[in-house]
């Protein structure tokens, strides 16, 4: 899968690509993520990407042309591209949307700053508007990396053990129960005996019950 991220802060994106599974996924050729500097798609000497809004109002808006040119550039040689706009006005990201995106060949993710983008970017180039929750961040870079990480780990071969993806919260419509590693006893707290029993059937039943309990307690909405 190819993912292009368009931003005025490409170094923010590049930095988070140099760690963990995103780095390995790129080394293994499973995903390729490219960060593009929106300023490279301006046509004036000062590389202006934002202007005050027509009709007045606070702050600055991002101009349409650099985004248009950037998308055109990223699309070259690609057949099926989805263009995501990161905005608090978008559909809130969830596991189902991540699964849909993970089936795509090419994503182009636009990261606005300031008060947002000129409406014509939405009208002409964007296929999906995506939010990561009901709060406002100062730009789309971190939300874009949330999308990249959440989508990348659903691509077959990226995460070492497919089981660890399937067992993840939400993939199985519930939360994972408590988990333990060494030592057996820590500050007077013992690991539940059943997990040390070696009886895989009992362990599976225990984990299943614990998962259900935690979901009932914390996210009853997921069971409905
Ligand atoms: Cl996608 N962008 C910004 N700026 N803030 C957000 C967001 C996106 N999702 C939640 N808050």
Description:
The protein is an alpha/beta fold. The chain folds into two domains: 151 residues, Alpha/beta knot (3-Layer(aba) Sandwich), CATH 3.40.1280; 55 residues, Trp Operon Repressor, Chain A (Orthogonal Bundle), CATH 1.10.1270.20. It is built from eight helices and nine strands. A five-stranded parallel sheet has the order 2-1-6-5-7, sandwiched between helices. Strands 3-4 form a two-stranded antiparallel ribbon. The chain has a two-stranded antiparallel sheet with strand order 8-9. Helix 4 links the parallel strand 5 and strand 6. The radius of gyration is 22 Å and the shape is elongated. The two termini are 34 Å apart. Bound molecules: 6-chloroguanine.
Average pLDDT reading: 95
The CATH superfamily of the largest domain bears the name SPOUT methyltransferase, trefoil knot domain
CATH topology of the largest domain: Alpha/beta knot
What is the domain total for the residues?
2
Percent strand equals: 15-25%
Query: How many E strands?
Result: 9
Shape: elongated
Q: Topology as H/E string?
A: EHHEEEHEHEHEHHEEH
Bound molecules: 6-chloroguanine
Compute the gyration radius: what is it? 22 Å
What is the name of the CATH class of the largest domain?
A: Alpha Beta
Q: Helical amount among residues, as a percent range?
A: 25-40%
How would you name the oligomeric state of the polypeptide chains in this document? single chain
């Amino acid at each position: 899968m190819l993912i292009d991220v368009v931003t005025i802060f490409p170094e923010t994106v590049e930095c988070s690509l140099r760690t963990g599974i995103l780095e390995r996924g790129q080394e293994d050729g499973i995903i390729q993520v490219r960060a593009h500097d929106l300023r490279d798609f301006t046509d004036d000497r000062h590389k202006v990407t934002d202007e005050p809004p027509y009709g007045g109002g606070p702050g600055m808006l991002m101009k349409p042309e650099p985004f248009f040119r950037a998308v055109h550039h990223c699309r070259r040689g690609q057949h099926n591209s989805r263009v995501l706009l990161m905005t608090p006005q978008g559909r809130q990201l969830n596991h189902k949307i991540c699964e849909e995106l993970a089936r795509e060949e090419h994503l182009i993710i636009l990261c606005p700053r300031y008060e947002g983008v000129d409406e014509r970017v939405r009208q002409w180039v964007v296929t999906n508007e995506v939010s990561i929750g009901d709060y406002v961040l100062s730009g789309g870079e971190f939300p874009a990396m949330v999308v990249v990480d959440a989508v990348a780990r659903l691509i077959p071969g990226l995460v070492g053990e497919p089981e660890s993806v399937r067992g993840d919260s939400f993939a199985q419509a519930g939360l994972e129960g408590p988990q333990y590693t060494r030592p057996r006893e820590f500050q007077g707290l013992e690991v539940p005996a059943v997990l040390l029993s070696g009886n895989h059937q009992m362990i599976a039943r225990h984990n299943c019950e614990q998962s259900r309990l935690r979901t009932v307690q914390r996210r009853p909405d997921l069971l409905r």
